[in-house]
Design brief:
The structure holds two protein chains of two kinds. Chain A is α+β, with helices and mostly antiparallel strands. Chain A contains two helices and four strands, in the order E-H-E-E-H-E. Chain B is an alpha+beta fold. Chain B has one domain (about 10-395): Cytochrome p450, CATH 1.10.630. Classes of the chains: A alpha+beta, B alpha+beta. The interface of A and B includes residues 20, 24, 33, 59 and 63 of A.
């Protein structure tokens, strides 16, 4: 059922090179670690209000390092 | 500079230092993309390729098996021996240990701390010319911003910036045609940093020179030549590049007052504008040396050949970017490659973005309306880094 599906983002860390675009576009969902590479905040759950931002972050990642899943 | 034969065909005889390329490279790249997406030239020792499409630039960026970073500048005569500036000239497995120590100094939090000082610097520069009603935005403004920021980060005197700019010009521009200039530049930088390291001894400091000196890899200090190599890189990579990005952005806004007016009216557009200006006027073209036989997009390449890695041309590829030839300051999806792709992503990208953004914000606050005083007098640097070197603007 659609209402129980949870949208999540994750970073493929072997692809991320620290461009920091996701953190700039969607700071609610992503943050930079000490090396400047991206990680998701919390467990990567994307609230409905932030879905558009999550997709925008994906579309701005030069390394295609962001994955989104719905379960 | 030696007298050169004019280019007859950009596909088979390109010269990225030719005056026509220097003046306006974009139509040349558009033409190449349509009829010969990987151009070639014998003007450079062992030959050089120029891929013009995003997909090919991306493929080469990720392929460290066939393409080495030991040479990152295409020169008429190859430079022997290679003088490394790790990590930009490093390949795996040396690359990662050379790069890792630098990263914390350039992470977003570290760069955020530099923002207020950079804002103040921009305003001091504007103070120096605003009453005159005109200035050279390249030499009175843009060039001083990264120069003084990096001098400060290194813990050096801001006035040393004049020397930095001379070394960079020798290494990146004059050095394409004259290897003696490269050598002189590298030697002078080496002496500068050696003397500075000796002067400091082991005294603690919170600047980049002390930071690099104090790095440990597997518990061992870095060899002095590696410390100095990386410091040379920070100078070479951090100044012309950002100077060019700021200058090219101001050049665009001077020629497109409607974009400047939109940014003044709605400063929140700066997020997308900075990325779009970086895409459209990406200053840096890197290079790789082929080290194993390889074929890219049907084009065979032999070991020894050089490959220009033109992020600026990739960023103008219409297959990747709709309306690639238009500057759309509200472009939302912008996967541009101005800072490279793959493991060599510019270590200073957070710093460069901050400097570009702050430079434009402070300029527009105080000089919202300006124009090119004489469009024909604008000159551009050649070769590895593209940006305006003379840019007279009027705002009276």
């Amino acid at each position: 059922m659609a209402s129980t599906e949870i949208l999540r983002v994750r970073i493929e860390s072997e692809r991320c090179q620290g461009h920091n675009r996701c953190c700039a576009v969607a700071p609610e969902l992503f943050e930079a670690d000490d090396l400047g590479n991206a990680r998701v905040r919390g467990d990567g759950t994307v609230p409905p209000a932030l879905e558009a931002k999550a997709r925008l972050a994906m579309a701005n990642c030069p390394e295609h390092a962001i994955r989104m899943s719905q379960k | 500079m030696s007298a050169k034969a004019p280019v007859k065909d950009w596909a088979t005889d390109f010269d990225h230092t030719d005056p026509a390329w220097n003046k306006d490279p974009y139509p040349i790249w558009d033409d190449l993309r349509k009829r010969c997406p990987i151009a070639h030239s014998e003007r450079f020792e062992d030959g050089a390729f120029f891929p013009s499409r995003y997909a090919d630039v991306r493929e080469i960026s990720y392929d460290t098996e066939h393409f080495s970073s030991r040479r990152v500048i295409v020169r008429e005569k190859k430079f022997h021996p290679v003088m490394p500036s790790p990590p930009i000239t490093s390949d795996p497995p040396e690359h990662r240990p050379a790069r890792m120590p630098l990263l914390p100094a350039f992470n977003p939090k570290a760069i955020e701390k530099l923002t207020p000082g950079t804002r103040a610097l921009c305003n001091r520069l504007i103070d120096s010319f605003i009453d005159k009603g005109s200035c050279d935005a390249a030499t009175d403004y843009a060039q001083h911003i990264p120069t003084r920021v990096i001098a400060k980060m290194l813990g050096m005197n801001e006035d040393d910036g004049d020397r930095y700019r001379r070394w960079i010009k020798m290494a990146l521009e004059e050095g394409i045609h004259d290897n003696a200039k490269v050598m002189q530049s590298l030697k002078e930088m080496t002496v500068y940093f050696s003397e500075e390291l000796a002067r400091r001894g082991s005294a603690p400091g919170d600047d980049l020179i002390s930071f690099m000196r104090d790095q440990r890899v597997d518990g061992q200090p870095l060899a002095p030549e590696k410390v100095i190599g990386t410091l040379r890189l920070l100078l070479i990579a951090g100044i012309d590049t950002t100077w060019s990005a700021i200058g090219a952005s101001l050049w665009h806004l001077a020629g497109h007052p409607e974009d400047a007016a939109r940014l003044v009216a709605d400063p929140s557009l700066m997020d997308t504008a900075v990325e779009e200006l970086l895409r459209a006027y990406a200053p840096v073209t890197m290079a790789r040396e082929v080290v194993k036989d390889v074929t890219v997009n049907g084009c065979p390449m032999k070991p020894g050949a050089m490959v220009l890695l033109s992020f600026p041309a990739a960023n103008r590829d219409p297959e990747m970017f709709p309306d690639a030839d238009k500057v759309l300051i509200d472009r939302k999806e912008n996967r541009h490659a101005a800072f490279g792709l793959g493991m060599h992503r510019c270590v200073g990208s957070n710093l460069a973005r901050m400097e570009l953004r702050v430079a434009l914000e402070e300029w527009l606050k105080r000089i919202p309306v300006f124009r090119l005083a004489d469009p024909a007098s604008v000159t551009w640097s050649e070769g590895t880094v593209r940006g305006p070197r003379r840019l007279t603007v009027a705002f009276n």
